[in-house]
Amino acid sequence: MATADSSGDILSQKDDELCCEPCLNDGQSRNVEGFCMECNEYLCHLCLDVHRKLRMLKTHHVKRGEDIPVQKPNQYPEEISCSFHTDEKITSYCQSHQQLCCDQCVILGHKVCIGLKHIGDFFKEFSESKDFQTDFENLKSLQSTYTGKMNEAKRSLEEVDLYYNNTMETFKAELDKIKIADIEKLRAIVTSYECVLCQLTAWLQEIDTCSKNKQNRELAIHMLRIKREAAAIKDNVQMLCTDDSIVRYGFTTDKTSLLRLVKAPYLVKAIDIKHKSDEKTCTIADIALLRENLIFITDNNNSSLKLFDTDLDTLVSYVKLPYEPWQISVTGKGEAYVALYGLPKILHFKLPATDLTTFSVINLDAKFYAVECFIKTLKVPCLSPARIIEVDGNGKLVGVVNSDLSKEATEKGEQFVINPCWSTQDPANGSMYLSCDRKNSITEITTDGKVKLIVKSDKLDSPQGFCMDTDGSFLVCSINGDVFRSPATDLTMFREIEVDGKCYTVECFNKTLKVQCMSPIKTIEVDGDGKQVRVINNDLRKETTGNGVQFILTPQWSTQDPANGSMYISCNSKQSITEIKSNDNVVTLLVKSDKLNCPHDMCMDIDGSILVCSYYSKDVFRMKKNEDIQSVIQKPLDFNPQAVALDKPTKKLYVGGQSDKIHVFQI
Questions:
Q1: What's the rounded mean pLDDT across residues 564-588?
Q2: pTM to 2 decimal places
């Protein structure tokens, strides 16, 4: 009887004859006539017939005669199973697909493959193959590479503390510089105030002693001396202690580094002008600067006048009037004249104009809204009829500059002044300028009475109060909430240019206007006369990402790179910012991110980053070309921002929107 040893690899029997293993398992002993490489079994002639007949076994490789191995090959584990047919053993290797196969795999997918080998032959040849040698060398190379990487990582691990300590020391040194500078500056300011307060205390004690002892001679001498010295002290304090701010700094994340230490932006000023006696919401009709840090305000809605110290944020003086104050005119000497809304009266505040309860009333026989003062003479634009008169400081008529402004007309016979309710003045030559909300015009009246139309444009949209800047341009309030700045003293340079499309944004580069239109959404170029030069893009809605996603639908805000003329467009409905290059008109999506959260107006900083208003986030973001988006203000605004502008030299950021105030941030 043949017996199988524990390993199953060698089969023995009497006279060293081999027996059929399937039959031996059934208790029968038959001579071996073949060996199946796939089944790894010795077979008799009956079992060989079964191998030839069964479809599943037809492809098996059978060794016969002298090829029958005396000892079973053990080139792979018997337990190896097919990854596709888990009940089947691996029997073959397909060289075409480089795949180990079971019988099912061969029948279903590899019958016609070239290079189908028995698994035993494949294993035997594998160690000598070129593929094996290449793969083996690749593994050795990986081993060598990763060993080097691991050693490098170990060295870095050992140096972590060293780099950490060095970095923290460098970082702390920079922070210490800021801290020390702030401390030294503020200590000097505190010391100055301590010295001043010590001196004031000593003076007050001297005055108190003289008063109690009725030393009138000494009291008078002390007061005269103290008055002079106090004025000098006040000037010195103003000069030495003005800047009591500190450098605000904080951390911000950055894709290119761990953290960045930045000077934190902050709101410079937001003055609350409401007085406890005010019953209504304040409506500021006019603001005048009497001197540095002292502003004069007319509150039309509460019929009051207010004087504020913007340094101390304190109300210096307040007066309630029986009528509505409107416009203010301040002389070079600091006197102030206030026009009253629709009344034939002017309030005159004499030197020094710091006590609003002290004034004289000048009665005029006319209905007027505005007043200007030039060389001790008051110019008053009156209504019914619209005329300009001159009166002296007592209200006595000096002359009539123009008896009826409504008769003034353009070359086409169009009226341009019928309701002159607001005025300003050129302090250099005394020319008076009037805005007319009904004719959308601004008019100049020279000192010799000549009337000149400066501008008449629907763009002004009912112009209201206005003032003159140092460069001779005007800042004009429009009733729709806009403030226009004229480019020069001659506002006739404003023209209306008709374009073929509903225009939302415009940028100027090299004397050419780039206009972003709606319906259809196209970008065109026109020259200075409005003549179309070319169409940059006929329909931006067709622009899509590589995945076919649209990224422009409502382009209502834009900005421009002054260096190369590239135009940048924000789309609030697609949360995107797009660049349109000037030279080749290529449209490039810069960023499309929900973080923008309804982007509105934009402006560009000197480093090429873009500052953009996020309407729904109530924030202003800085967007860099690497798609890094960071907030530039410390906390969300209390209104929805729509407009933003940056004063690049001073780094002051102006943010406006659905709010009664313009917020100014130092960034």
A1: 87
A2: 0.37
